[in-house]
Specification:
The chain is mainly α. The chain contains 15 helices and 2 strands.
């Protein structure tokens, strides 16, 4: 570890540091946690930047991904500013607990978990899914588009990429992270299923996609304030969803790993059928096995978290800027 820490925190910059540093600094003010995004606390911002740059030096294949700033800020806060300990936990969490390629350039593992989540949500909450499918189809028809992403995508993707640090109070996030560290990455899918199940009755009242997004924008803020999700009830719901390890989640992950179009690094890769002025879509490697094929929105990784804005209260992180995200998709 001494050698790794010396390399990661080396004050001498290398040729990759300038580009990474600019990207990291650009995101620091969007951490949403006042202790690390406040311009009046430059020492904390500098510590967060060093941890993020240290991870990027350690894992050059991933480098820096938007959302890391939220994860690193919470870890750094837990360890009371100890940068080496924060980096050590970040490396363990991202490289050894979460699925491989979760933050790789095409986000393949994230695409897989999104597909797994949708399958299980359809099985566990059929009425909710039927209602959301109806709203999704009506939105596509109204927009005159061939493809409208699943309504849950904007929220679930955000939750996965920041390990729920964008949607829940700090104490609840840390309880979930304890579960992830103890039980493994299937907790991500379990937690998303639990959250949508809890929110199901509320969002079933939405009569169209716009109303759904507006409702979820309001709900997201209340979730951050701890007014909707009971922490203990959420953890109990996570653990009541089958044994550990969850055989169905792993089975579905295997099913989709080589049978899904991942998020691409460029919208230019979107096929012409869906490529009208930045719209989203997906493509098949073959026409076989249609049942197992899943369409995923082709959101460039650099943009995948671009719809967040800081939530101003102490101890909270982000809430989603739904309008910005929807405008990007259009």
């Amino acid at each position: 570890w001494g050698h790794i820490a010396k390399f990661a925190f080396n004050e001498k910059s290398n040729r990759d540091d300038d580009k990474l540093g600019l990207q990291i600094v650009k995101d620091l003010h969007r951490t949403g946690y006042s202790k690390f995004c406040d311009k009046n606390r430059p020492e904390n911002r500098a510590a967060l930047k060093r941890v993020l740059l240290g991870y990027a030096r350690w894992n050059k294949a991933v480098g820096y991904c938007q959302g890391f700033n939220v994860i690193a800020a919470l870890i750094l806060d837990v360890f009371e500013g100890n940068e080496e300990q924060a980096l050590k936990v970040m490396i363990y969490l991202i490289d050894y607990v979460l699925p491989k390629n979760y933050f790789a350039n095409n986000l393949r593992a994230l695409s897989v978990d999104m597909a797994v989540f949708r399958d299980l949500l359809r099985e566990e909450e059929p009425d909710l899914c039927q209602h959301l499918d109806k709203l999704q189809a009506e939105a596509a028809e109204e927009a005159g588009s061939d493809y409208e992403p699943p309504l849950t995508n904007v929220f679930t993707m955000q939750w996965f990429l920041t390990i729920f640090a964008t949607c829940l109070p700090r104490d609840t996030i840390l309880r979930i992270w304890d579960c992830v560290l103890l039980e493994g990455s299937t907790v991500l899918v379990r937690t998303s299923l639990a959250l949508w199940s809890i929110l199901g009755e509320r969002i079933s009242a939405a009569e169209n996609a716009h109303e759904f997004y507006s409702m979820m924008g309001y709900i997201s803020q209340k979730m951050l304030e701890g007014r909707i999700i009971d922490r203990d009830a959420l953890i109990q719901k996570i653990y009541s969803n089958g044994s550990f390890p969850h055989p169905i989640i792993e089975e579905l992950r295997d099913k989709y790993t080589y049978n899904i179009t991942p998020f691409t690094s460029s919208t230019s890769e979107v096929p012409s059928k869906y490529s009208t002025s930045g719209s989203t879509g997906s493509t098949r490697d073959s026409d076989d096995d249609d049942e197992n094929y899943v369409e995923c929105p082709q959101t460039p990784p650099a943009k995948c978290l671009g719809g967040f804005f800081p939530y101003p209260e102490e101890g909270n992180f982000y809430c989603a800027s739904i309008t910005d995200y929807l405008e990007y998709l259009k």
